[in-house]
Write a structure and sequence with these properties.
Length: about 400
């Protein structure tokens, strides 16, 4: 007698291969995808991750029990030759109560930590873990870039927010145009950012590093290119960065002539001593990328670039001084642009070539932005880039 092969067996190899491929797809290097909630680097994000993992493990237990019971029932009560017609059951009050109570208990195990986390993250803590007052940062959403103001220091910057590790950050957010949403997955949760209404968010960075974030509410043509970075630094590094920004006017005058150039090393040595100097060399202190190397003092392009920056009306929208900037900003503050990680609203790597492209052809790089660009020769654009590179 010839055995007939069950039709489902034809698809078994394909099913097993698909299962393996799906599993391998999840085995990625987390360092290559840093914008993930699965690698929390802040206390707020850690609390959210704890709720998520609790839910995942409970769901896994439910899945194993339910699917295991289903497979057992399929095997145990499979049809056999000459089986009589099984007894017909039209309902069981006991079974229905059981499968109603068990999910309710499971949901309670999920609801309790969820509600606890909601209340724990709802309000900004009165003090940081170390007892310091939270660092207040005003976040302003623009199409399509982020502005950060530090009232405690009178500093304004854009797209790259510096914070000290271990100190709670109190974010007070609003928009000047449309609805945005602020999210830095590794350190904090997500909040909508509204025009004419302040929303609050907070976090405490648990370790140093660069943590990417993004706008997560559709806000127009370039929504997908509205990124930001949180630069979590040691308290010494953060103090050095604050001191550097407070000397923007002095640095602007020194760098523009190519003489008496003020470097980040100078500021670090003014505020720190000994081996701490080397430790303070973070991503915004001494860039290793040759594309961000400061022009040689005395380079004639620096003075030419400074003149062009004013002549071509760049200064009409952008400030090179982060101190006491007017509240209403047209374009991002460019203090420290020479060593920022990204440009064009946190989207484009800050290399000389990209900076030149962004200055000359902003509508080609990021269509729809407010910056329209000006007619510049290659030499003029190179001069402006050289001048901006002095803004450390």
């Amino acid at each position: 007698m010839r055995l007939v092969r069950a039709p489902w067996r034809r698809f078994l190899p394909v099913g097993l291969l698909s299962f393996v491929l799906l599993g391998l797809a999840g085995c990625t290097d987390g360092s290559k995808y840093p914008q993930s909630t699965l690698h929390p680097k802040g206390d707020f994000a850690a609390m959210v991750d704890e709720v998520f993992m609790t839910t995942v493990w409970l769901a896994l237990i439910v899945f194993i029990v339910v699917e295991g019971g289903l497979l057992w029932a399929i095997w145990r009560f499979r049809a056999k030759p000459n089986d009589a017609r099984p007894k017909q059951i039209h309902g069981s009050t006991v079974v229905e109560i059981i499968w109603t109570v068990i999910p309710a208990v499971v949901l309670a195990f999920v609801a309790v930590p969820t509600i606890k986390t909601i209340f724990a993250t709802a309000n900004v803590p009165a003090a940081s873990p170390g007892g310091e007052a939270p660092l207040k940062v005003e976040v302003v959403g623009h199409q399509w870039w982020w502005e950060f103001r530090y009232p405690e220091y009178g500093i304004t910057t854009a797209n790259q927010m510096h914070v000290p590790v271990g100190r709670t950050v109190d974010l007070r957010m609003k928009s000047v145009d449309v609805l945005h949403a602020f999210w830095i997955p590794q350190v904090t949760g997500k909040r909508d950012v509204f025009p004419n209404r302040e929303t609050r968010l907070w976090f405490t960075a648990l370790e140093t590093g660069e943590f990417p974030g993004a706008c997560t509410e559709f806000c127009g043509l370039q929504h997908a290119r509205m990124d930001l970075y949180v630069m979590s630094q040691t308290p010494e590094e953060f103090a050095a960065w604050v001191a550097l920004r407070k000397r923007d006017p002095e640095m602007s005058g020194a760098a523009s002539t190519g003489t008496g150039h003020v470097t980040v090393d100078t500021i670090v040595r003014d505020t720190m001593s000994g081996t701490a100097v080397a430790a303070a060399r973070g991503p915004d202190a001494l860039p290793t990328d040759a594309e961000q190397a400061a022009p040689v003092p005395g380079d004639p392009r620096i003075a030419e670039g400074k003149a062009l920056f004013t002549k071509k009306a760049c200064a009409g929208c952008h400030s090179l001084n982060s101190i006491d900037q007017p509240k209403r900003s047209v374009g991002p503050n460019l203090a420290g642009i020479g060593v920022r990680k990204m440009i064009a609203g946190g989207w484009l790597p800050n290399t000389d070539l990209n900076l030149k492209r962004w200055i000359m052809h902003p509508q080609d790089v990021k269509p729809g932005v407010a910056m329209k660009g000006y007619t510049l020769s290659d030499a003029e654009a190179d001069a402006i880039v050289a001048y901006l590179r002095t803004k450390r």
